[in-house]
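Write out the bound-state structure for magnesium ion.
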Amino acid sequence: MVGFLTLLKKEILRFWKVGFQTILAPIVSSLLYLLIFNQAFAAHVEAYPDIPYSIFLIPGLIMMAVIQNAFANSSSSLIQSKISGNIVFVLLSPLSYKEVFYAYILASTIRGLLVGMGVYIVTLLFFDMPPMFLPIWALLFIIIGSAILGALGIIAGIWAEKFDQLAAFQNFIILPLTFLSGVFYTIHSLPYVWQKLSHINPFFYLIDGFRYGFFGVSDVSPYVSLIIVTACFIGISKIAINMLKTGYKLRH
Amino acid sequence: MNSAIELIKVCKRYGSLNALHNIDLDIQAGEFFALLGPNGAGKTTLINIIAGLTLADSGSTKVMGHEVIQQYDDARRNLGVVPQELVFDPFFTVREALTIQSGYYGIRNNDSWINEIIHNLGLTDKADTNMRALSGGMKRRVLVAQALVHKPPVIILDEPTAGVDVALRQTLWDFINQLNRDGHTIVLTTHYLEEAEILCNRVAMLKQGKLVALDTMQNLISGISGYTLRLKLFPDTLPAELNKKLINYNGEYYLFDVDSYGQIEFILASLRRINIKVLDMNILQPDLEKVFVNMMHNGATQ
Ligand SMILES: Nc1ncnc2c1ncn2[C@@H]1O[C@H](COP(=O)(O)OP(=O)(O)OP(=O)(O)O)[C@@H](O)[C@H]1O
Ligand SMILES: [Mg+2]
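---
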């Protein structure tokens, strides 16, 4: 337990010590997105009746920031340790693969939560947000979302051997899944084929369920979303844990 | 006696390269052991297999009786490794790095031992300096310190004195010797053979992934018959009859292999016959370096 807590603390310190880049910067850029999209689209897009576009946009942008930062946390930590070689300090220690796994995804989740809450608090200053419909749902989805991306970050961080491979993972997998998940629109506004395609995107359920926590409205039932994202977390975790267990690309 | 490190038929290939071939090695608890070999011989690969950083293709490896893969928890708790590469985490200071490393081994309040290590390795002034700001030699000291935070019974040092100044080399060896006297098993690799000769009781030599020598320091050195005679002559020539005994001439000194003192007489007599004066003369005792050179050139397998 001490070993796990030490690694967790180290992983938290790692982003906390550079909090300007890892927490503050993403909050500011989300706010910029919000202001710009709101200016550009507010007049043209209606998502749900009774909910102005700017307000509709907020949960999506929060989840987008959470997704990006939870992923960045575990993946960049791992690839930096691998490239600089200091991963040996963890590999030499008796830390079990499960302890390593949980420490990394928990650190990712904490960073995801901090960024998510930061974006939320800042938007409260700029927009007239109605009170959250069911905060517990929002919290649940933000935690599972961070954990999924933390686990994906472990997979990408172990698999990638160079920074550009990690960037490719981010640009060709994480980013498209995020943009095609309904961050900026409801999928009901999409053509039929795209609606169907969105349903195989796990990030869609993250954002839809998260939005339910805010407004009490969603494209699919939040229970369905919860089941799907939980299953998704378990599946991705299994892969990440197995990579750590077998020492894939870590113990040659 | 019990084994600190036990390898049975360990093999490791990298593609077509045989990095380690059928290594059998048994290092007893309490030994001060040297693992020697030229660049690329497989020393680091062997150490990494013991540490669980590299997975062997076949064979079994144990640390203090614990299998390094199946019983990794016990095996790793019993082992401290100083890696050959100068690795560090730029986010932390020396003391933070040592506290974190202790935590990985489940040790919470380790300050008094950490202070002792810091003191013994001459790091007191740098304890609160960020790792990034340390010189190479200082980083090497921290690597040694990190390997010792959990007081492991078995300590492996992979070229710990590369890039380290004379003063620290002395303090480092004093400290490691003290640990050995306290019962810790020490395994070290180095390219400074005098260092190994002074410190170690037993030696293994690797050549292209094969174990070519494994014996006590004493046996290896006394196993070399004879001495080396080193002469400086005037005029700088040699009678033909001595040419076959000559092993080296460096432009100044002649080196001869001699089996006995009687042969020295013979060499001197033949020089005197043609009026060659001896300006300087040394009889060099056999040393580890000679053993090493013989092993690497002849490829004799014991
Ligand atoms: N990850 C790897 N992939 C491919 N080949 C490797 C790898 N690691 C080591 N080797 C090869 O295995 C051989 C043994 O390397 P090793 O690092 O064990 O040598 P060494 O005895 O420690 O040498 P040195 O004295 O230079 O440290 C070398 O030929 C090396 O090129
Ligand atoms: Mg080496």
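---
The longest helix of chain B spans residues 166-181.
Chain B has a mean pLDDT of 91.
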